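W.,

You were right to be curious about this one. When I first looked at the sequence I had no strong expectations either way, so I just let the prediction run and decided to look at it fresh. Below is the sequence, 311 residues in total, followed by the output.
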Amino acid sequence: MTQNMRKKLEERYTNGEISEEVYRSILKDMEEYGDKEAMEDDTDIRDDENDRHGGENSTEKRTGGVSISGSGTLKHVKGEYLKIVGSGKVEGDIDVIEMKTAGSCKVEGNIRAESIECAGSSKIEGNIDSKEAKFAGSTAIEGNLNSEKISLAGSVKIDGDVICIHFKSGGSTKIEGAIAADERVECGGVLRAASLKTGTFSGRGAVNIEETVVAKDFSLAMSGTSSMKKLMAETIDIQPEGAKKGLSRLFERGGSLKIEHIHGTTIYLENVIADYVDGQEVGIGPGCKIGTLKSPNARVHEGAKIKKREN
């Protein structure tokens, strides 16, 4: 570590620009890893408080944060923010208010933050707890993702469970565990998960759920092949994407769903292969193959096939 870098860090701590905890964390990284990994010229560790608190005349207390521009490695991060532009690695946990990355980011630990926004390549080897989490690009999370609002885009793989209020995904999303969203799930592209529970589900593309889907309202405009074991919802609307767009039947409608059981109150299906369908008001559209249909009020398209009917 150069004397100028140490002096600059000490001045910022003395002037109250960074907290003691952040000061000691940066100092430890500088001493342990040296200029090549923790504090090289291409690693900029600075305080962005003028932007966050209204400039030099702000009276709010500044708690400090850490930024990496270029490439850098840190041990643990605890402060107001973490910003990475380029290639950054954190060997330990992150505990901040705001985390933003653009480029390549690897975290060998857990993340706790109010806001997380990562673009590029992100690998998290632990759990994530936040109020809002946005990932775009190539994302791998080896633990659980727990956030009030989640937005995923690109190629995403999560080894654990996803717990949230609002969930939105686009691209290819694979979740080894369960999705539990209190209010809403929106997805486009391909979504895979072990199970899914939410209030309102709205999807376009292919949805593959190993076990059960539970929702109040379920709507899927299919493209490609979808599958699930059981679907339970009050209202269910499943059609090929072309049908959802109101295209003429002269146009080819792609997309299909294979499922064992469907249970609902109001149900409309097209291009669905199901062993058992049970509902109060049921519409079986073209392309459906149903083993047993149980409904007191069912409308069946001439192009659909029903093996057995029950009232």
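Here's what jumped out at me. The chain has one domain: 88-310. And, maybe more interesting for your project: The chain has four helices and 21 strands.

Coffee later to discuss?

I.
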